[in-house]
Write a structure and sequence with these properties.
By secondary structure, the chain is mostly helical. It contains six helices and no strands. Helix 3 runs antiparallel to helix 4. The relative contact order is 0.17.
Length: 130
Amino acid sequence: MAEDVVFADLPPEPALDHEVLEDLRAALGNQVDQVISVFLDDSPMLVARLEAAALGPDLVTLREAAHSLKSSSANLGALALSNAAKRVELGARTGTLDRPAVAVAMVSSEFARAREALQALLASRPEAAF
């Protein structure tokens, strides 16, 4: 019980690791904004696939969608989202994903945080062309 209190008191992991984004911007320049836009357009489909697959559960679809989301989110510095997707991917791969709907709900929650942070980042760059 005491451990629950300790973990509950920890602040959540930041939605974005800005150092990752800075490194990506150094490599790609303003094309990063386009990469972010594509991520924001494509990722809701992956989250929806995860949510539908959790109902089955369809472990193959869970693994594949989580893998895609894990990789793309890590590339943009959305490491909390990437970690949540990684847990789903590994659990689906090994057959140890006890509560798929709960795990996918965590992914959905982290996606919402990442989406908000990425949209705010894009909004703060009015000179960027999408």
